[in-house]
Amino acid sequence: MPKREFKVPRKGRGRPDFSEETYDIKKGKVYNEFWPQEDERWKVFLFSWPPTAKLKGGASVHLLDIETFLSVPYTTPAGWFARFAEWMGSFDKKTMLTVLMDDNPPFLLLYPVQGDTHEYEKISFFDSRYFDPNAEEPHTWDFIITNTDTEDAIGCAQTALIMQRVGTPEMKEKKVRCPKCGFDNIVPIEQNKITCVNCGYIFVVPYYGRRVI
Ligand SMILES: [Zn+2]
Protein backbone atom coordinates (compact mmCIF):
# COMPACT_ATOMS: atom_id res chain seq x y z
CA MET A 1 0.00 0.00 0.00
CA PRO A 2 1.46 3.44 -0.89
CA LYS A 3 2.49 5.64 2.01
CA ARG A 4 -0.24 8.17 2.89
CA GLU A 5 0.66 11.83 3.29
CA PHE A 6 -1.27 13.96 5.81
CA LYS A 7 -1.00 17.76 5.98
CA VAL A 8 -1.74 17.87 9.71
CA PRO A 9 0.91 16.61 12.13
CA ARG A 10 -0.01 13.34 13.75
CA LYS A 11 -0.55 13.28 17.49
CA GLY A 12 -0.83 9.83 18.96
CA ARG A 13 -2.53 7.03 17.08
CA GLY A 14 -5.17 7.00 14.40
CA ARG A 15 -6.15 9.53 11.77
CA PRO A 16 -5.33 13.22 12.11
CA ASP A 17 -7.96 15.46 13.67
CA PHE A 18 -9.15 17.94 11.04
CA SER A 19 -11.73 19.54 13.34
CA GLU A 20 -9.65 22.63 14.08
CA GLU A 21 -9.35 23.37 10.38
CA THR A 22 -12.92 22.82 9.27
CA TYR A 23 -15.28 25.76 9.53
CA ASP A 24 -18.41 23.66 9.10
CA ILE A 25 -17.56 21.36 11.97
CA LYS A 26 -16.90 24.32 14.29
CA LYS A 27 -20.43 25.49 13.55
CA GLY A 28 -21.64 22.08 14.67
CA LYS A 29 -23.83 21.52 11.64
CA VAL A 30 -22.29 18.25 10.49
CA TYR A 31 -21.09 15.42 12.68
CA ASN A 32 -17.38 15.02 12.21
CA GLU A 33 -17.84 11.39 11.26
CA PHE A 34 -20.32 12.24 8.52
CA TRP A 35 -18.44 15.05 6.83
CA PRO A 36 -16.15 13.68 4.13
CA GLN A 37 -12.51 13.71 5.21
CA GLU A 38 -9.86 14.73 2.70
CA ASP A 39 -9.48 11.17 1.48
CA GLU A 40 -13.22 10.39 1.48
CA ARG A 41 -16.32 10.97 -0.58
CA TRP A 42 -20.00 10.05 -0.23
CA LYS A 43 -22.23 8.22 -2.61
CA VAL A 44 -25.97 8.79 -2.12
CA PHE A 45 -28.74 6.63 -3.60
CA LEU A 46 -32.46 7.32 -3.45
CA PHE A 47 -35.90 6.99 -4.92
CA SER A 48 -39.17 8.78 -4.27
CA TRP A 49 -42.81 7.90 -5.00
CA PRO A 50 -44.13 10.43 -6.09
CA PRO A 51 -42.84 12.13 -8.27
CA THR A 52 -42.67 8.70 -9.88
CA ALA A 53 -45.91 6.70 -9.83
CA LYS A 54 -46.74 4.80 -6.65
CA LEU A 55 -44.61 1.76 -5.86
CA LYS A 56 -46.90 -1.09 -6.84
CA GLY A 57 -47.81 -3.81 -4.38
CA GLY A 58 -45.17 -6.56 -4.52
CA ALA A 59 -42.89 -4.52 -6.82
CA SER A 60 -39.14 -3.99 -6.38
CA VAL A 61 -37.06 -1.03 -7.57
CA HIS A 62 -33.30 -0.42 -7.53
CA LEU A 63 -32.33 2.94 -6.04
CA LEU A 64 -30.76 5.61 -8.26
CA ASP A 65 -27.31 7.12 -7.86
CA ILE A 66 -28.55 10.67 -7.42
CA GLU A 67 -25.26 12.16 -8.65
CA THR A 68 -25.66 10.47 -12.03
CA PHE A 69 -29.26 9.14 -12.33
CA LEU A 70 -27.79 5.71 -13.05
CA SER A 71 -29.53 2.77 -11.39
CA VAL A 72 -27.65 0.65 -8.86
CA PRO A 73 -25.78 -1.70 -8.62
CA TYR A 74 -22.91 0.74 -8.11
CA THR A 75 -19.33 -0.50 -8.29
CA THR A 76 -16.75 1.06 -5.99
CA PRO A 77 -13.41 0.90 -7.79
CA ALA A 78 -10.21 -0.77 -6.63
CA GLY A 79 -8.18 1.64 -4.51
CA TRP A 80 -11.15 2.66 -2.35
CA PHE A 81 -12.68 1.26 0.81
CA ALA A 82 -16.46 1.56 0.97
CA ARG A 83 -18.81 1.28 3.90
CA PHE A 84 -22.56 1.43 4.25
CA ALA A 85 -23.15 4.57 6.33
CA GLU A 86 -26.78 5.62 6.22
CA TRP A 87 -30.25 4.34 5.41
CA MET A 88 -33.61 6.07 5.66
CA GLY A 89 -37.14 5.43 4.51
CA SER A 90 -40.67 6.65 5.00
CA PHE A 91 -43.61 4.73 3.52
CA ASP A 92 -47.35 4.31 4.00
CA LYS A 93 -47.18 0.53 3.41
CA LYS A 94 -44.94 -2.34 4.48
CA THR A 95 -41.66 -2.06 2.59
CA MET A 96 -38.13 -3.32 2.95
CA LEU A 97 -34.65 -2.42 1.80
CA THR A 98 -32.38 -5.18 0.52
CA VAL A 99 -28.66 -4.36 0.84
CA LEU A 100 -26.21 -6.43 -1.17
CA MET A 101 -22.43 -6.23 -1.27
CA ASP A 102 -20.86 -8.49 -3.88
CA ASP A 103 -22.13 -12.08 -3.62
CA ASN A 104 -22.63 -12.02 0.15
CA PRO A 105 -25.99 -12.88 1.71
CA PRO A 106 -28.48 -10.00 1.41
CA PHE A 107 -29.54 -7.96 4.43
CA LEU A 108 -33.26 -7.23 4.58
CA LEU A 109 -33.95 -4.03 6.51
CA LEU A 110 -37.65 -3.43 7.24
CA TYR A 111 -39.21 0.02 7.27
CA PRO A 112 -41.99 0.71 9.80
CA VAL A 113 -45.40 1.45 8.28
CA GLN A 114 -46.31 5.15 8.44
CA GLY A 115 -43.08 5.72 10.30
CA ASP A 116 -39.74 7.16 9.48
CA THR A 117 -36.43 5.41 9.77
CA HIS A 118 -33.21 7.36 9.63
CA GLU A 119 -30.11 5.60 10.79
CA TYR A 120 -26.57 6.90 10.60
CA GLU A 121 -24.54 3.85 11.34
CA LYS A 122 -21.79 1.58 10.37
CA ILE A 123 -23.03 -1.95 9.90
CA SER A 124 -19.70 -3.68 10.35
CA PHE A 125 -20.49 -6.42 7.86
CA PHE A 126 -20.86 -3.88 5.05
CA ASP A 127 -17.33 -2.50 5.10
CA SER A 128 -15.13 -3.61 2.25
CA ARG A 129 -11.93 -3.29 4.32
CA TYR A 130 -12.81 -6.47 6.21
CA PHE A 131 -13.08 -8.43 2.97
CA ASP A 132 -10.32 -6.73 0.98
CA PRO A 133 -7.90 -4.97 3.38
CA ASN A 134 -5.68 -3.60 0.60
CA ALA A 135 -8.61 -2.42 -1.56
CA GLU A 136 -7.34 -4.47 -4.46
CA GLU A 137 -10.74 -5.33 -5.95
CA PRO A 138 -13.82 -3.38 -7.06
CA HIS A 139 -16.98 -4.08 -5.02
CA THR A 140 -20.58 -4.11 -6.11
CA TRP A 141 -23.33 -2.51 -4.04
CA ASP A 142 -27.05 -2.93 -4.64
CA PHE A 143 -29.97 -1.31 -2.84
CA ILE A 144 -33.46 -2.60 -3.66
CA ILE A 145 -36.76 -1.33 -2.27
CA THR A 146 -39.61 -3.86 -2.19
CA ASN A 147 -43.21 -3.11 -1.41
CA THR A 148 -44.19 -6.20 0.62
CA ASP A 149 -47.80 -5.04 0.87
CA THR A 150 -50.51 -5.88 -1.67
CA GLU A 151 -51.50 -2.22 -2.08
CA ASP A 152 -49.51 0.49 -3.87
CA ALA A 153 -47.25 2.62 -1.67
CA ILE A 154 -46.04 6.19 -1.52
CA GLY A 155 -42.81 7.12 0.21
CA CYS A 156 -39.11 7.59 -0.24
CA ALA A 157 -35.87 5.83 0.58
CA GLN A 158 -32.22 6.81 0.67
CA THR A 159 -28.95 5.05 1.39
CA ALA A 160 -25.36 6.29 1.49
CA LEU A 161 -21.88 4.86 1.22
CA ILE A 162 -18.69 6.50 2.44
CA MET A 163 -15.73 5.74 0.23
CA GLN A 164 -12.18 6.20 1.50
CA ARG A 165 -9.30 6.51 -0.92
CA VAL A 166 -6.43 4.15 -0.28
CA GLY A 167 -3.88 5.08 -2.88
CA THR A 168 -5.20 5.36 -6.41
CA PRO A 169 -5.41 8.62 -8.38
CA GLU A 170 -8.41 10.84 -7.67
CA MET A 171 -11.50 10.20 -9.82
CA LYS A 172 -11.81 13.16 -12.21
CA GLU A 173 -14.91 12.39 -14.26
CA LYS A 174 -18.35 10.86 -13.87
CA LYS A 175 -20.99 9.47 -16.18
CA VAL A 176 -24.35 11.26 -15.79
CA ARG A 177 -27.51 9.96 -17.44
CA CYS A 178 -29.78 12.59 -18.99
CA PRO A 179 -33.24 12.26 -17.35
CA LYS A 180 -34.87 13.43 -20.61
CA CYS A 181 -33.24 11.33 -23.34
CA GLY A 182 -31.22 8.74 -21.40
CA PHE A 183 -27.86 9.69 -22.96
CA ASP A 184 -24.81 9.08 -20.75
CA ASN A 185 -22.72 12.30 -20.53
CA ILE A 186 -19.10 12.24 -19.32
CA VAL A 187 -18.43 15.35 -17.20
CA PRO A 188 -15.94 16.56 -14.55
CA ILE A 189 -16.75 14.91 -11.23
CA GLU A 190 -17.57 18.13 -9.34
CA GLN A 191 -19.86 19.54 -12.05
CA ASN A 192 -23.43 20.21 -10.91
CA LYS A 193 -25.08 21.86 -13.93
CA ILE A 194 -25.16 19.44 -16.83
CA THR A 195 -26.05 20.23 -20.44
CA CYS A 196 -26.85 17.00 -22.27
CA VAL A 197 -24.64 16.81 -25.37
CA ASN A 198 -27.27 14.68 -27.11
CA CYS A 199 -30.48 16.69 -26.60
CA GLY A 200 -29.39 19.96 -24.98
CA TYR A 201 -31.48 19.45 -21.82
CA ILE A 202 -30.01 21.30 -18.83
CA PHE A 203 -30.31 19.71 -15.39
CA VAL A 204 -28.58 19.75 -12.02
CA VAL A 205 -27.07 16.92 -9.97
CA PRO A 206 -25.60 17.09 -6.45
CA TYR A 207 -21.97 16.35 -5.62
CA TYR A 208 -21.24 14.81 -2.21
CA GLY A 209 -17.45 14.77 -2.37
CA ARG A 210 -15.31 17.31 -0.60
CA ARG A 211 -14.70 20.46 -2.63
CA VAL A 212 -11.45 22.35 -2.60
CA ILE A 213 -12.44 25.80 -1.30
ZN1 LIG B 1 -30.43 14.37 -23.17
Task: Please write out the topology.
Blueprint: H1 23-26, E1 40-49, E2 60-62, E3 64-65, E4 70-71, E5 74-76, E6 80-91, E7 95-101, E8 107-111, E9 115-120, E10 139-147, E11 155-165, E12 173-177, E13 184-188, E14 193-195, E15 202-204
Antiparallel strand pairs: 1-3, 1-11, 2-10, 3-4, 5-10, 6-9, 6-11, 7-8, 7-10, 12-13, 14-15
Give the ordered list of helices and strands: HEEEEEEEEEEEEEEE
User: Can you summarize the main beta sheet?
Assistant: 6 strands, antiparallel
Based on secondary structure, the structural category is: mainly beta
**Which cofactors or ions or other ligands sit in this model?**
zinc ion
Gyration radius over CA: 19 Å
Helicity range = under 10%
Average residue pLDDT: 84
CATH architecture of the largest domain: Sandwich
What does it look like?
- With 213 residues, the protein is mostly beta strands.
- It has two domains: 37-168, Jelly Rolls; 172-213, no CATH class.
- Helices cover 2% and strands 40% of the residues.
- The chain has one helix at 23-26, and strands at 40-49, 60-62, 64-65, 70-71, 74-76, 80-91, 95-101, 107-111, 115-120, 139-147, 155-165, 173-177, 184-188, 193-195, 202-204.
- It binds zinc ion.
- Zinc ion binds at residues 178, 180-181, 183, 196, 198-199, 201.
